[in-house]
User: Which sequence fits this backbone?
């Protein structure tokens, strides 16, 4: 296959981004054009999704410092699915709130492109630049409603945290380069397994790794680098929040998986306890903070921090040759995939309420079952999935991640995760309670949802149930993807 | 009593350039006038170019001066001069937290210095032979192996440019 | 035909739920179609009772299909002597609850019946699933409709009770999930029977104990075994009548079923080691629950605590049987009591039979009691025991029904409750005499609270019209005073009362099913090395 053909998903997105940009230049700015730009973006994302799906079955190979393998392809599928759903649901939302439709959707496709490259990048320099592209575009998108104080604050906070985090990460990466003499992850891995590696140098690389971790942890909103997340998630336009908490996280975990599992596999004795500690800290802090929220958008923001903690559990419990098919890396991928549909669904439900009532406070959800029964029902499903109740995708993700940790006998980690699951159920139930337990009289008028949102919600619902009830197909993808990463590991 | 090592000429020059770079970098952050910050930024770029020269990367040094000092810094200066109020406005770059921040930064620096001093860096890598073909090879690498990185950089610049205009312009259609 | 029965029975309620959701026009149509559709699982469960082949024994009506091959989880259903009566109990109580609810539920009817069908599916699923993943999925799904039933149609403090119910049982279930995962990694399969046959952790008592307690936590929260019972009084008291019936009648049995189906056969060594704890928890629950009942002034709360006490018999019986789950333990204990191992094994079978019979009877009896409390509450709108009195003359029919249910519950010979208590104590006395003796204390106190608290306070004495001002009829029309039970209420209760009498006089047919599975369990563990 032609080398450029390997970049097919990225090329599609690039063409899409430039097309939307040029369309916007060519035509008069029209407030109503946003929805059609959103649809065009969604269309390109769907085509890119198909291209990524096609890449799943390719032999693993490398091109332009990127791995073209099933792992990258699976992450791309996850990311594109999420972005396409956001585009489908968010067109009208953005229409009503801003004039700069062309720029928004151009940036939106560029963000997707950045995440796509990040999924496959195997070279530290490319990882760094792509994270920067992802971050800088995201800053713009977070602050897109520049006349709204909250949105401006969201962008500003994100920017300040982000620039410090990426500076620290770059610093750490440069130390790794100083020791290894290469930026290629495979060469880094090879360096650490060579027999004449001195113990001092090995130990000296741990702080460098920690510095690099700061950048990844920032993107994945792990403790202690998550403080930007609630403010940014709350203030950003809801479509932006949606992808920041799902697709962006998937890309961050993909690059972390490659960095730690492939690049630093020989140092796992050192980084496993660190990541385990971060996992505990992240889920606990996220859940405790979410308990106190009265703004549903902010509550979901904290909950998505907590979920990053659960996903990290899977990364802690990676094993090269898990006999059971229930490995940590499988868990991470499955969790990301299931979490994506669930959380996109949850945020789109929120967006629907925001569209019709203008508020995302808990009161806006009062008696939702009477005003929009289907919306309330689907939102309930997403919340139950987030809480990890079976028959949903969220359960299967937790099942695998917890399973991997049990298999590695990290009982303390699992025990803490267990307590956290209990705490989390409490605040998800609060939303459900608000939607259902009120009386019919004081509910208010019925809500009418735009078609795009209805379609998105339906897709998310079906996907959540599909993953939860009949997952063999998804598990096949996940297994192929994680096997390709694990065979690249030099133990 | 151990005798202090006599610094070589190169070391003296390095310390001087490094100090110049760090001090002007600090100046960028603490200057009260935006215009002064811009000028100090240009000075920082010069200092970095000097470090490249000392690393025998002349091409990089020249590029650095051409692009960063010649283009980027100039552009910033123009932007500031053309923006109303930015020329004369005085800002206070310090807030209430600066003491804590400075303390934390200092501790971080001390920690890093201790850490860096302790690393047994491996023997230096093979020096790159500077010859006629070096720049050509560099260019070739940029459009083959580093193609995606280069493209990503291009996109990054485009996003930054468009985004900056978007966030800064104050008219509504 | 054989193989499809369980699939149809399991998913029929789901179909009913969807029908209600998508085609439910008027409230009346929803109610009628719900009741009619719920007859199908009931009929199929009778078919199971009738069709079970005692000669062959073991698991019958099996269904096995590939489901998630990557983790060796399959879609495997099957029933044996233990689960068939419980399936029947579930279907029976579901139909009766739906029928009763049709008479008293007036708002948000569609949602109510939708959730009730889902609840029925999840309960049936737990009893017929033979795969851990499947089992766990149904186990957890049962939480959700129940949460809504309590939270939407419950009484004043419903919000608190619903959340408490959900969180407590969720934490227990997640602990169980971890134990299930540990069993999976030890045996490589999620099949419940295969995993038991593989005997995980039989040589590692420490890990086995951890897994044992993980499972026990999940089951004990559901049973609920003392001291994990604190959610129960709130949930039972606040739930709508039919919710309480299902909660007490079926959901509590899920936990006890798990103990017998999963815990004893899979981890017999740990069970032997921890059996004294189970026995102690069971005996304490019997006495403690009974004492708390005496102190209650809320009628429904009293019945709720009586469930804690009565489920204590179940835990006591299972705990006693657990003490002889390995051949070595059986031989040791036989030495201590200078009995033959066979005699001791008989006692163990007796204890299990008592426990399982108690599960079934408690479902019938407490179900009836909750219906009765609901009937009174619909009229008086209070559950305060001290505001009633002298109802025996004004509502004789109601009085009669209540007497039968109360006497059955306190274990009067000739009614259903007697046999369960008799078997349990007969079995437990031979194995754990001291705790069994302690437990019998509960029988006496039970008599006290039923006779003194309920019969005396509510039915005897003088009727004082000033105590309750606004009596209504069951339809919500104002009434002068208490009105007796009406047609649909009678029809709801008669099957339950008939079952109490029938089992009380001739328990053999029912015991045969339970005995079959008890003997199979004891046979299974006696072959272990």
Assistant:
């Amino acid at each position: 296959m032609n080398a450029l053909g390997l970049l097919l998903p990225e090329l599609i997105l690039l063409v899409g981004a430039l097309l939307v940009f040029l369309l916007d230049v060519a035509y008069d700015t029209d407030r109503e054009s946003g929805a059609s730009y959103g649809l065009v973006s969604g269309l390109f994302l769907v085509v890119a999704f198909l291209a990524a799906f096609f890449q799943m079955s390719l032999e693993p190979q490398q091109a332009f410092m990127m791995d073209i393998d099933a792992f990258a392809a699976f992450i791309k599928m996850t990311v594109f699915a999420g972005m396409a759903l956001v585009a489908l649901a968010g067109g009208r939302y953005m229409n009503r709130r801003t004039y700069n439709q062309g720029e928004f959707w151009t940036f939106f496709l560029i963000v997707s492109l950045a995440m796509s490259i990040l999924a496959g990048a195997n070279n530290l320099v490319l990882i760094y630049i792509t994270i920067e592209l992802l971050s800088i575009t995201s800053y713009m998108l977070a602050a897109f409603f520049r006349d709204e104080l909250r949105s401006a604050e969201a962008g500003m906070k994100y920017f300040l945290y982000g620039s410090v985090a990426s500076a620290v990460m770059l610093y750490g990466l440069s130390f790794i380069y100083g020791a290894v003499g290469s930026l290629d992850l495979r060469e880094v891995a090879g360096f650490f397994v060579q027999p004449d590696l001195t113990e001092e140098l090995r130990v000296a690389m741990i702080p460098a790794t920690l510095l690099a971790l700061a950048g990844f942890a920032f993107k994945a909103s792990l403790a202690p680098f998550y403080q930007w997340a609630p403010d940014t998630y709350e203030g950003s336009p809801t479509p932006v929040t949606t992808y920041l908490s799902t697709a962006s996280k998937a890309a961050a975990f993909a690059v972390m998986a490659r960095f730690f599992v492939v690049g630093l596999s020989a140092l796992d004795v050192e980084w496993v306890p660190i990541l385990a500690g971060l996992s505990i800290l992240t889920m606990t802090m996220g859940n405790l903070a979410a308990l106190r929220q009265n703004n549903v958008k902010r509550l979901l923001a904290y909950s998505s921090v907590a979920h990053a903690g659960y996903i990290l559990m899977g990364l802690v419990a990676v094993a090269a040759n898990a006999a059971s098919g229930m490995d940590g890396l499988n868990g991470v991928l499955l969790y990301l995939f299931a979490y994506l549909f669930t959380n996109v669904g949850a945020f789109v439900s929120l967006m629907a309420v925001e569209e019709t009532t203008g508020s995302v406070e808990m009161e806006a959800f009062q008696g939702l079952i009477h005003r929009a029964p289907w919306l309330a029902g689907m939102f309930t499903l997403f919340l139950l999935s987030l809480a990890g109740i079976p028959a949903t995708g969220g359960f299967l993700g937790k099942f695998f991640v917890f399973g991997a940790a049990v298999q590695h006998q990290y009982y303390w980690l699992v025990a803490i995760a267990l307590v956290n699951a209990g705490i989390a159920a409490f605040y998800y139930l609060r939303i459900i309670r608000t939607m259902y337990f009120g009386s019919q009289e004081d509910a208010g008028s019925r809500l009418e949802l735009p078609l795009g949102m209805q379609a998105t919600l339906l897709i998310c619902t079906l996907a959540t149930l599909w993953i939860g009830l009949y997952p063999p197909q998804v598990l096949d993808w996940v297994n192929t993807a994680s096997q390709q990463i694990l065979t690249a590991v030099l133990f | 009593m151990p005798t202090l090592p006599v610094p070589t000429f190169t070391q003296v020059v390095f310390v001087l350039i490094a100090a110049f770079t760090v001090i002007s970098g600090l100046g960028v952050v603490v200057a009260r006038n935006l215009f002064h910050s811009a000028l100090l930024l240009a000075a920082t770029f010069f200092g970095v170019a000097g470090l490249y020269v000392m690393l025998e990367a002349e091409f990089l040094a020249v590029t650095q001066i051409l692009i960063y000092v010649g283009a980027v810094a100039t552009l910033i200066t123009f932007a500031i001069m053309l923006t109303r109020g930015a020329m004369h406005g005085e800002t206070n770059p310090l807030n209430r937290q600066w003491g804590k921040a400075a303390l934390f930064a200092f501790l971080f620096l001390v920690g890093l210095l201790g850490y860096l001093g302790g690393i047994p860096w491996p023997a230096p890598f093979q020096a790159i032979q500077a010859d006629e073909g070096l720049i050509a090879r560099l260019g070739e690498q940029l459009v083959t192996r580093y193609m995606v990185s280069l493209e990503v950089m291009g996109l990054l610049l485009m996003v930054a440019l468009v985004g900056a205009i978007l966030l800064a312009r104050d008219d509504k259609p | 035909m054989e193989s499809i029965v369980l699939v149809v029975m399991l998913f029929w309620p789901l179909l009913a739920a969807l029908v209600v959701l998508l085609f439910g026009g008027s409230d009346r149509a929803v109610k009628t179609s719900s009741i009619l559709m719920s007859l199908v699982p009931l009929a199929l469960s009778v078919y199971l009772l009738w069709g079970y082949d005692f000669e062959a024994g073991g698991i019958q009506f099996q269904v096995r299909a590939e489901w998630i091959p990557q983790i060796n989880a399959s879609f495997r259903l099957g029933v044996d002597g233990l689960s068939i009566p419980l399936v029947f109990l579930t279907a029976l109580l579901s139909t009766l609850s739906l029928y009763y609810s049709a008479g008293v539920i007036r708002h948000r009817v569609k949602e109510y019946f939708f959730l009730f069908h889902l609840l029925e599916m999840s309960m049936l699923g737990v009893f017929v699933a033979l795969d851990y993943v499947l089992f766990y999925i149904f186990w957890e799904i049962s939480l959700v409709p129940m949460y809504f039933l309590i939270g939407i149609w419950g009484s004043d403090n419903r919000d608190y009770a619903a959340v408490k119910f959900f969180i407590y049982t969720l934490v227990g279930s997640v602990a169980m999930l971890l134990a299930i995962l540990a069993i999976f990694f030890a045996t490589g399969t999620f099949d419940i029977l295969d995993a038991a046959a593989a005997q995980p952790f039989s040589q590692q008592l420490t890990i086995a104990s951890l897994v044992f307690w993980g499972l026990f936590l999940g089951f004990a929260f559901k049973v609920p075994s003392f001291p994990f019972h604190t959610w129960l009084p709130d949930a039972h008291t606040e739930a709508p009548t039919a919710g309480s019936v299902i909660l007490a009648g079926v959901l509590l049995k899920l936990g006890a079923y798990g103990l017998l189906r999963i815990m004893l056969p899979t981890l017999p060594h740990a069970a032997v080691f921890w059996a004294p704890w189970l026995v102690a928890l069971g005996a304490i629950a019997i006495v403690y629950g009974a004492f708390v009942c005496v102190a209650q002034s809320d009628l429904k709360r009293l019945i709720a605590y009586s469930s804690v006490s009565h489920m204590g018999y179940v835990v006591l019986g299972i705990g006693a049987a657990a003490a002889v789950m390995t051949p070595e333990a059986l031989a040791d204990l036989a030495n201590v009591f200078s009995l033959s191992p066979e005699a001791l094994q008989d006692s163990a079978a007796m204890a299990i039979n008592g426990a399982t019979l108690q599960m079934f009877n408690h479902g019938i009896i407490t179900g009836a009691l909750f219906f009765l409390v609901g009937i009174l509450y619909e009229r008086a709108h209070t559950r305060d025991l001290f505001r009633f009195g002298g109802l025996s003359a004004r509502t004789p029919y109601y009085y009669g029904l209540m007497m039968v249910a109360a006497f059955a519950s306190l274990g009067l010979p000739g009614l259903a409750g007697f046999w369960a208590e008799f078997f349990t104590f007969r079995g437990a006395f031979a194995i754990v005499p001291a705790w069994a003796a302690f437990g019998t204390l509960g029988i006496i106190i039970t008599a006290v609270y039923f006779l003194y608290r309920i019969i005396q306070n509510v039915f005897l004495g003088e009727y004082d019209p000033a105590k309750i001002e606004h009596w209504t009829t069951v339809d919500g029309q104002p009434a002068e005073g208490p009105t007796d039970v009406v047609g649909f209420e009678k029809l709801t209760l008669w099957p339950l009362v008939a079952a109490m009498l029938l089992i009380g006089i001739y328990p053999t047919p029912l015991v045969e099913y339970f005995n079959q599975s008890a003997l199979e369990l004891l046979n299974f563990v006696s072959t272990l090395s």
